[in-house]
Design a protein that fits this description.
about 120 residues, mainly alpha, 6 helices, globular
Length: about 120
């Protein structure tokens, strides 16, 4: 019985980390990132400031990393800026590289450094 309970907890933990059931903080981070698409620069700037100041880095960083592959260059640029501000890390990035490559570099960095947040 104890083994079954432990297995159930482990499975639930794995499902939680797949992002299938976002937490309130994850939804908040994603809401700010969605506002990066606004045509109004003041709205975009406010969303970036709130994300950096109000959302825990452990929650914000993965969402921002995924936004690095957005179709909109504006969203990608703001996501990269927020990542730099939250992490104090500047990853060299050639603008000619694909957004997917930039996202992969940040994913690698996050795997190696997530325990610091």
């Amino acid at each position: 019985m104890l083994y079954t309970l432990a297995l159930g907890v482990a499975v639930c933990d794995d499902v939680f980390h797949l992002g299938l059931f976002p937490t309130a903080l994850e939804r908040e981070a994603l809401g700010h990132i969605r506002r990066f698409e606004s045509a109004d620069e003041a709205v975009r700037r406010e969303a970036a400031e709130k994300l950096v100041r109000e959302v825990d880095g452990f929650v914000a960083i993965p969402a921002l990393i995924e936004a690095l592959d957005a179709r909109s260059p504006r969203v990608r640029e703001l996501a990269a800026d927020c990542l730099r501000r939250i992490t104090n890390v500047v990853l060299s990035h050639d603008p000619a590289d694909s957004p997917a490559k930039h996202r992969a570099e940040w994913r690698r960095w996050w795997r190696e450094n997530r325990d610091r947040f």
